[in-house]
Structure formats: structure tokens, C-alpha cells
Amino acid sequence: MKRQVTIRCLLIVVATIILLGGPVRGQQVRQLFFDDFSDGDAQDCSPIPWWWDAARGDVAVVDGGLWMQPKVGKPDLLAFAPEDIYRDDLQKYAGDLVVTVQFTATPCAGSAAGIFLRMNLDMHNKDLVALDGSGYVGGIGAANDLYLVRFDGSPSSMKYLGGNRFPNFDIRSEDIILQLGISDYVTPQGARSSRIELRAWRPGEEMPTQPQISATDSQYSEGYAGFCVDSGDSAPGLSDATVRWIEFVGEHSEPVVDFNGDGNVDINDLLRLIESWGQADPICDIAPRPYGDGTVDATDLELLMSYWEQPVDDPTLMAHWALDETEGGAARDSISGDDAVVLGDPVWLPAGGQVNGALELDGVDDCVVAAFALNPLDGPFSVSAWIKGGAAGQVVISEAAGPDWLCLDPVTGNLMTALSSTGLSGSALLSNSRTDDGDWHRVGLVWDGLYRTLCVDGVSVAQDTQEGLKSLSRDLYIGAGNAMVLETGFRGLIDDVRIYNRAVSP
User: Fold this and answer.
1) Which whole number is the average pLDDT over 98-104?
2) Residues 6+ apart with CB under 8 A from 245
3) How many Cα atoms occupy the beta-carbon half-sphere of 1 within 13 Å?
4) Is 113 in contact with 180 (CB distance < 8 Å)?
5) Which partner for 162 in 33, 91, 213, 269 could form a disulfide, CB atoms 3.0-4.6 Å apart?
6) Number of neighbours of residue 253 by Cβ within 10 angstroms
């Protein structure tokens, strides 16, 4: 009875907020600062004072760039970072952060230059040596190889998180733009983790839509950030770098208020928050940023209602095919801007979908071929779609020559997934839920790093644990099986296909 009264009171408060228009939300992702060193001084407050250890290297503003050269040999680094003049310390950062820098270098053997994030250091006398700290470093080496590593207190503790080549590039003669970003998410089980992405491109080119290296890790939640250059194996003074400009964007990203990942902040999200009222639910504990205060309460309700019926800018949405086109052979991914190829002769229904328009497939030769948007091996993810129709053995979403992500069991017609682990736990997950009754249903697969969950209309219908998920990183098929076999073609309507790099709440 007490809980029913509480919920009734909350709904009255919510109705009042809606009628009054709700509080105005501010922009939470913003440029913290941009410095091109054009004022000739890196230690003034325009826009921010930088700090480095003069005993470890020489630093000077030369020709509008910050030139830096280590004095000592490997494994020491010369690094610079934003200073907090009010605390006589370096500036610490928590929450989402993206650091982008354009620089050139004259490296020697074994040297490298890059960005460090969430570095936790022994700050006695501001002894800023990244290799002796704990945090993440992403950069480029003398052989033009990109790398992403984690340090846990010493050089010997380095954990390699990923690497890649930067083809047809020479750091000795070209500028490079390097970007290292980190964003946080919470699994449905309440575990906190982070996604780390490294991108590299040449000045004048477009930033890559997909990172060259990405990883998930939960070791560090805050720390210092900046740029560093390694002296290398050779004699001191043979490795240097010149930073043209550096930009910090972040502080805190937009909170994830679309709890169920359907693209709307509506009654479903509100009811989800109310169900968790007074509890320590990390999904709904969204205020204050970045990690909430441990309890779902009025501050979370106020923040949620500030997004009521407003467009959702979800930083975890990696791909979205709305399928709202009216004609033609292309379906636009609103996140990357890339067009998926529509095969066969499906019918566009501009007003016939569950969310605006939809695509009607004949189950014979109709399907949509989309570029690969996310690798399930990289960490938590969710995929969903609205469907109407279908039959046993037909597939909603699959990976070319790989597993069927969402499909209907060939025998029972129940929703299932074949996306599984390569280990002993690897097997298909079959639900007891049918969706071929001629009504609209929202089907989804959620992976949080441990639990694999099938969902129908916002309800979990099957769940198990997996050691990981296998993937071939190939094209995705919407409305056809992984080999486009005739029997796997979906006959019916498909609408609003979404892929997130987080585990959404059913």
C-alpha cells in the first residue's frame, strides 16, 4: 500500500512537471578548451595553463606550436597536462573525455608519442611520468604503428589493449591528428565499465567514423590527461614532437535517459525509474552527473523529465536505420550517414511503420545490406528492431557468413539468437516467445559482457551467460539469413533498427 501511494504521488509530481513544460536542460558535452599556442605562452591562462617537468625535457613555443624534447633516455617520458591553479595540482577528469591533438614528430628507435587519459600518478613535486602511473595511453610509434595500452603502476605492468597500422604514413614527414576518447557505461547488473577508442587521420581528411583501435576496461574511472613523448632507445635529444593544437571535449556526456533504447523518453522510461525509486539502481541513478548519488530520487526524476518528449542524443547509439525512406535502393544510417543497400524489390511504407515509416519485405529476394557497425567482441552492445509478420526459420538481422543475431526458430517459430561464444558455453539462445501473430513487436538482443538476453516488447524472454561473443566483423543483413538462403528471408515489415554499444534495459 505504501509503495502504491508513493507511485501515485510521483505520477502527480510528474504530471505537474509536464504541464509546466519541465526544466530546461543545458548542454553537458562541450569543448573544455582548445589551445593552438598562438599567443606564444603555454603557461598563461589563455585558455589554460600547461605544466611539465623541466628536469625531464625542454619545452618551448616555436612557430606557433609547442615543441617538446625529452632530456633523458627510455623509459622516461616528457609529458604536459592542464594545471589546476587553484589546487596547485594538475586537473583531474572524471566522466567522458575526448582529447584530440595535431602534431608531428622526429622519433628515434623505440620512441612514441601519444595521449594519456585517467592517469593516476605520484604527484609529489608533480612528478608527471606516465610510465610510472596507472591509466591509459594511446599513440603512434616510430614505425607508424598505433597502439593502446594500460599501465598499472610500472612499465612492467603494461597491458596491451590493441594495435593497428596507419598505412602509407610517415610520422617523420607528416602531421597526424590523434584522438583518444573514453566513455562510461553501466551494465544491467550494476557494473561500471569504460569504452576507449583511438582514432588517427591526416589533416584535411574527415575523422574516421570507426576507431582504428577500441577496447573496454573497468580499471580506472578518473585521473589526469595530456600529451606525452618518449625519448626512445637512442641518445637523449634525438626524439621530439611539435604540437600544433590540442582540444579537450567532455566533462560529462549527455546522460543516458532513454533507458530501454527505443529512441524516446516516455512513460516506459518513467515507469522504469519509478520502479527503482529509493534504490541503488545504476541504470536510473543518472543525477548528479557523472555517476549519480547512489539512490534513485527526485534529482533523477527532474533530470529525466527535462528530456521529456525531446529529441534524444544518445552517445551510445552506434547505428540507426529508421527505414523511413519513401523510395529508392538506399536506407540511411542516421549515425554514420552511410547508406545501406536495399536489394530486391521491397515496398517502402512511409506511414505504415511502428515508428513513422517501415520496409515491407517479400521473404524471397528482399533484404538490406548494411556496413558493419559494431563488433560484439569489443564489449556490451544491444540490437533491436520493430517487426510485424515473419515465420519459422526467417531472420530479422544476421551477419554475412556469420551468426544470425535475431531470428525465428525453424521448428517453433520462437525468437532466438545464434550469436554466441566460441567457448564451451557457445550455443543458440531460444525463447518461448512468438512474434509471428501479425502484430507489431519490438525484438532485441542485449549483451552486457556476461549475460545474453533476448527481449520482446520490453520484457526479457530468455537469458543465459556466455564467455564472450564471436563475430566476423562483416556486413549486416536486415531481413535475410547469413547466407541469404531463400528460406531465411523475412516476410513482413521491419522498422527502426538500432545498435547500441551499451546494454539497454528491457
Assistant:
1) 94
2) 34, 35, 36, 37, 101, 102
3) 0
4) no
5) 213
6) 21
Q: Which residue has the cell 527532474?
A: 302
E-strand ranges in 231-332 read 240-251, 317-321, 330-332
Compute the distance between CA of residue 174 and CA of residue 103 in angstroms, rounded to an integer.
9
Predicted local distance difference test score (pLDDT) of residue 394: 97
Which grid cell is 162? 590493441
Element (H, E) at 83: strand 77-84
**pLDDT 10s digits, 250-264:** 854 567 899 999 998
Residue 45, CA atoms < 13 Å, CB-side half-sphere? 3
Give me the CATH code for the 317-500 domain, please: 2.60.120.200
Distance in angstroms (rounded) separating the CA atoms of residues 428 and 415: 11
Give CA–CA dist 130/116, Å, rounded.
8
Statement: the pTM of the whole predicted model exceeds 0.70:
no
Task: Please report the pLDDT score of residue 421 as a whole number.
Answer: 86
Domain with CATH 2.60.120.200 in the chain: 29-251, 317-500
Torsion of CA 371, 375, 376, 379, to 10 degrees: -140
Q: Give 376's contacts (C-beta < 8 A, 6+ positions apart).
A: 419, 447, 469, 470, 471
44 contacts: CB under 8 Å, gap ≥ 6:
none
The total of other beta-carbon atoms located within 10 Å of residue 81's CB is: 23
pLDDT on residue 86: 42
Percent of the chain with pLDDT over 70: 84
pLDDT of residue 118 exceeding 70: yes
Q: Which of 125-129, 138-142, 277-281 has the lowest average pLDDT?
A: 125-129
Phi, psi dihedral angles at 126 (to 5 degrees) = 50, 50
Amino acid at 283: I
To the nearest whole number, what is the mean pLDDT of the chain? 83
Residue owning grid cell 549475460: 451
- Provide mean pLDDT across the span 150-171: 84
C-alpha cell at 438: 501479425
In whole angstroms, how far apart are CA 241 and each of 58, 71, 98, 103, 449?
A: 11, 13, 21, 7, 39
- Cα-Cα-Cα-Cα torsion 496, 497, 498, 504, nearest 10 degrees, comes to 80
Fold of the CATH domain 29-251:
Jelly Rolls (2.60.120)
